[in-house]
Specification:
5 strands; alpha/beta; globular; 3 helices; 110 residues
Length: 110
Amino acid sequence: MKSNTLKENKDFRRLYYRGKSRADSTLVTYAMKSRLDNTRVGITSGKKIGNAVKRNRSRRVIRAAFHLLEPRLNGCWDIVFVARTKTPLVKMQEVYADMEKQLKELGVIS
């Protein structure tokens, strides 16, 4: 199942307020069951993370980790991943481990 991207501010806001969340040192995950027929994913990395190079690296690492977990999704979800200051400094495998743990706790993957 291929996922789309979340782009609209209102979608991000809805997840922040109504979605369930889990946090770790490398990543914060917000998830909410979707009524649509596909999963939508959004990734944010604020100015606090560093310059554009670091922000882009953190988004790239998060996207790569999610790409590996995507086939294991249960149903359709709206998911937002928020990068932390540690995210651009770690390897993708560390982000993958944190993401897998968080998505299991939220019931997104089995």
